[in-house]
Amino acid sequence: MRPTHVLQSGPHVPVGKYGVWKGWWGNIGGQKQSGIITYGIAPNRLNPLAGAAHNAVFNVWRRFASQVWYVAPPMVAGWYVMYWAEER
Fold first, then answer.
1. CA distances from 28 to 13, 33, 44 (A)
2. Which of 8, 9, 21, 50 gives 33 a disulfide partner, CB atoms 3.0 to 4.6 angstroms apart?
3. Are 21 and 33 contacting, i.e. CB atoms less than 8 angstroms apart?
């Protein structure tokens, strides 16, 4: 069985030759591309633990300072009640 004419049709010029880099579908008569390659790396990949120790200390302090007001008053009240009960 022989492929049809549509399946055999392809780019008129091989991709990568004669200044055609986009292929037949993207080659719409515009300016020809010529091997533009860029490489990049995300900032978190360069140094993933940058500032981790510094941020950990201040984050622990921030979390402690925000939660101490929920824990300390009941503990102080409980201690005072126990102290009062023992003295009585």
1. 13, 12, 39
2. 21
3. yes
| Domain segments of the chain as ranges | 38-88
Query: In whole angstroms, what is the distance from residue 23 CA to residue 20 CA?
Result: 7
What's the confidence (pLDDT) of residue 31? 63
Mean pLDDT, the chain, integer = 77
* Rounded Cα gap, residues 19 and 32, in angstroms: 6
Place of tokens 């622990």: 60
Name the token pair of 68: 């101490």
Q: Which amino acid appears at position 53 of this protein?
A: A
pLDDT tens, position by position, 46-84 = 888 888 888 899 999 999 999 999 999 999 999 999 999
Angle at 83 between CA 79 and CA 86, to 5 degrees: 140
